[in-house]
């Protein structure tokens, strides 16, 4: 079993009457990032998520290249790179008449290792 396939320890449930500087509802990529950035800035944060992590979803199966600076800043880029993953090397455009055009990403993106990663949502959780 890969390390991302088991339940994640989410910590203790807060006591009644606890107060927080920030409450984030939804622990997907955006909510988790918002909670993490606020915690990194010294806020007492409560992140509320209805599902048990990791959970698989059919959406959100990629970390775009422009987001990788945040992934690094949040301290999880190395962790993602240590798990099985692919790097985006192109974009394929398709039309209703089944014609496709494949556009390769610039080589500079690969040299900076910033092209993005398609990976299962439960892995990014």
Question: Which tags fit this structure?
Answer:
125 residues; alpha+beta; two-stranded parallel ribbon; two-stranded antiparallel sheet; elongated
Would you give an account of this structure?
The protein has 125 residues and is an alpha+beta fold. 26% of the residues lie in helices and 19% in strands. The protein has five helices and six strands. It has helices spanning 29-40, 68-73, 77-81, 107-111, 121-124; strands spanning 22-25, 45-48, 62-64, 90-94, 100-104, 116-118. The strands form three sheets. The chain has a two-stranded parallel ribbon with strand order 1-2. The mean pLDDT is 82.
Write the layout of secondary structure elements.
Blueprint: E1 22-25, H1 29-40, E2 45-48, E3 62-64, H2 68-73, H3 77-81, E4 90-94, E5 100-104, H4 107-111, E6 116-118, H5 121-124
Parallel strand pairs: 1-2
Antiparallel strand pairs: 3-6, 4-5
Tally the beta strands. Answer: 6
What structural class do the secondary elements suggest?
A: alpha+beta
Given as residue ranges, the uncertain stretches (5+ residues, pLDDT < 50) are none
What helical percentage do the residues reach? 25-40%
Q: Over all CA atoms, what is the radius of gyration?
A: 18 Å
Percent strand equals 15-25%
**What order do the helices and strands follow?**
EHEEHHEEHEH
**What's the rounded overall pLDDT mean?**
82
Number of helices: 5
């Amino acid at each position: 079993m890969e390390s991302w396939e088991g339940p994640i320890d989410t910590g203790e449930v807060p006591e009644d009457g606890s107060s927080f500087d920030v409450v984030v509802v939804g622990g997907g990529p955006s909510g988790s990032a918002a909670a993490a950035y606020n915690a990194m800035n010294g806020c007492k944060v409560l992140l509320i998520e209805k599902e048990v992590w990791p959970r698989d979803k059919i959406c959100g199966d990629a970390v775009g290249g422009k987001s990788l600076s945040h992934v690094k800043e949040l301290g999880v880029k190395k962790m993602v790179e240590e798990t099985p993953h692919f790097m985006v090397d192109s974009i394929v455009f398709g039309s209703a008449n089944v014609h496709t055009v494949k556009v390769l990403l610039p080589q500079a993106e690969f040299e900076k290792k910033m092209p993005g990663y398609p990976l299962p949502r439960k892995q990014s959780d």
